[in-house]
Write a structure and sequence with these properties.
Its main location: membrane. It is found in: Membrane. This is Sodium-independent anion transporter. It comes from Terrabacter tumescens. It is a multi-pass membrane protein. By secondary structure, the protein is α/β, with parallel strands linked by helices. It folds into two domains: 332 residues, no CATH class; 90 residues, STAS domain (Transcription Regulator spoIIAA), CATH 3.30.750. The chain is 60% helix and 7% strand. It is built from 20 helices and seven strands. The strands form two sheets. Strands 3, 4, 5, 6 and 7 form a five-stranded mixed beta sheet that branches. A hairpin with a 2-residue loop joins strand 3 and strand 4. Helix 5 runs antiparallel to helix 10, helix 9 crosses helix 10 and helix 16 packs antiparallel against helix 17. The longest helix has 33 residues. The two termini are 44 Å apart. The relative contact order is 0.16.
Length: 510
């Protein structure tokens, strides 16, 4: 992963990067410089959230207020209940794609019920320990996830660069130049915030007609209110919304946990994935009861917060939600005149900073095993093709598992060790025995030519599953059919326990 403290695209290096507990809220409140970073980080994220939330509302087929209110409630709630400090959760495109059919076919109230049920499912999955599954995500999948994310963030900006006035292009160029060059002069204020302010003042002062945030959709004029979805509480309603709620819960958890792991790496800090899992559920439940469309962790905005702005605590997450509400409700007229070119410049630099450029260097690709590169590239292709990070990660993990099993299967071999006497032959089995490797074991013995007694030494092996036990049974039976006996030795304790429990009881299993 790119190092956030050395990346040329990072707008600011946290002034407290080497302090002991960089995620402590109390420590940040006691330090004016840290608090400034958190406050400004939250403000930049809030500005970036507005057009995103409006766009995702359009994808879901709901009023922009539904996405904006969801972003507010998600960010504020997760700031208290989430497990990953400084991570931003709000309305997202992945969740919007999942719930769009509910709105289209059944209406807004069913959407809200779906969001609430999805939150409940996330809480249950979190308490059941679903976060522990993250340990099965290989590094190659994680790298592919990050690179695909960078590509998706960039592609999301392309529509804002097509069919627009020509002045958009120099404005974007100026914004990128400010974000890259300003940190070389000062890091007192996040460069993305400076770029947004400068471009806004420039377009207004010079009366430059370019697309603005206000063109993306009407901003709300009132605060969100508590409500209960007007749906019949029946089994029919449950069966209607349950599939979408489950899909939303799984997609949201996948993206949130992957984002949390990415932030852990970028900030070199640890977070509670279990708490983040059920915290996402709580945030979605709250969001549903306030009429929001639900959401999960947002990687683009999170990277703005932790890399571009240097934030590290829950303060920035909380303030991102608060500033969002203040901006769209209280200062909507001012926010509406921000040129989209400014936000495009910010997101383009976020995509550049997110990309793991080291992983795609020719020297790295030559050094990496082909299977690792295949998994990484496959993850990127699936994510970009489906615009769904969760699907890409699942496919990447499955491909990695298959390739790993295939590679390990060929590491098992049988060695003719010794002939102690004329009636005995000693074999040694080396490597892990499991369903993919044990099947070839049967063909590696000389059933006809071996003497009356055969010893199979498994001290350099391990029996992992029932398939391996069944294979050992098959070998024993093949020798027995020729009047020969087999003695299996050297089993470690787990292998011995598994073999004693299953041997002789798996006829036909192999």
């Amino acid at each position: 992963m790119p190092d956030p403290t050395t990346s040329p695209t990072s707008a600011v290096t946290p002034p407290f990067a080497h302090e002991a507990d960089v995620t402590s809220v109390r420590a940040a409140l006691r330090s004016p410089r840290r608090l400034r970073v958190e406050v400004l980080g939250g403000l930049v994220v809030a500005l970036a959230l507005i057009p995103e939330a409006i766009s995702f509302s359009i994808i879901a087929g709901v009023d922009p207020r539904v996405g904006l209110f969801a972003s507010f409630t998600m960010a504020v709630t997760i700031a208290f209940v989430g497990g990953r400090p400084a991570m931003i959760s709000a309305a997202t495109g992945a969740v919007a794609l999942v719930v769009a059919p509910v709105v289209r076919d059944h209406g807004l109230d069913h959407l809200i019920a779906t969001v609430i049920l999805g939150g409940v499912i996330q809480v249950v999955l979190g308490l059941l320990g679903v976060a522990k599954l993250m340990r099965f995500v290989p590094r190659s999948v994680m790298v592919g996830f990050v690179n695909a994310l960078a590509i998706l963030i960039f592609l999301a900006q392309v529509p804002h660069l097509l069919g627009v006035p020509w002045m958009v292009y120099p404005l974007v160029a100026v914004g990128i130049a400010l974000i890259v060059l300003l940190p070389r002069v000062t890091t007192a204020v996040p460069a993305p915030l400076v770029a947004i302010v400068v471009l806004t003042v420039l377009t207004v002062a010079a009366s430059i007609a370019v697309p603005t945030v206000g063109d993306e959709g009407k901003l709300p004029e009132s605060l969100p209110s508590l409500l209960v979805p007007d749906v019949p509480f029946t089994l029919d309603t449950l069966t209607t919304i349950a599939p979408y709620a489950l899909a939303m819960a799984l997609v949201g958890l996948m993206e949130s946990l992957m984002t949390a792991k990415l932030v852990d790496d970028v900030t070199d800090t640890h977070s509670s994935k279990t708490r983040e899992s059920w915290g996402q559920g709580v945030a979605n439940i709250v969001t549903g009861f306030f009429g929001g469309m639900g959401g999960c962790a947002m990687i683009g905005q999170t990277m703005i917060n932790v890399k571009a702005s240097g934030a590290r605590t829950r303060i920035s997450t909380f303030l991102a939600g608060v500033f969002l509400l203040v901006l769209v409700v209280g200062l909507g007229d001012i926010v509406a005149i921000i040129p989209m070119a400014a936000l495009v410049a910010v997101m383009v630099m976020v995509s550049v900073g997110t990309m793991d450029w080291h992983s795609v260097r020719p020297s790295t690709l030559r050094r990496m095993p082909r299977s690792e590169t295949l998994v990484m590239v496959g993850t990127v292709i699936v994510v970009v093709a489906t615009s769904n990070l969760a699907i890409g990660v699942v496919v990447g993990v499955l491909v990695a598992m298959v390739l790993f099993a295939r590679r390990v299967a060929h590491l098992t071999r049988v060695v003719d060790v010794a002939h102690p006497d004329a009636d005995t032959r000693l074999y040694a089995v080396e490597g892990a025995l499991f369903f993919a490797s044990s099947n070839d074991l049967v063909t590696q013995f000389d059933y006809v030519g071996d003497p009356a007694h055969v010893v199979i030494d498994l001290s350099r092996s391990h029996v992992w599953d029932a398939s391996s036990v069944a294979t050992l049974d098959a070998i024993t039976q093949k020798y027995a059919a020729r009047g020969k006996t087999v003695t299996i030795t050297g089993l470690n304790e787990p292998s011995r326990e598994r073999h004693e429990r299953l041997a002789g009881h798996l006829t036909g299993a192999h």
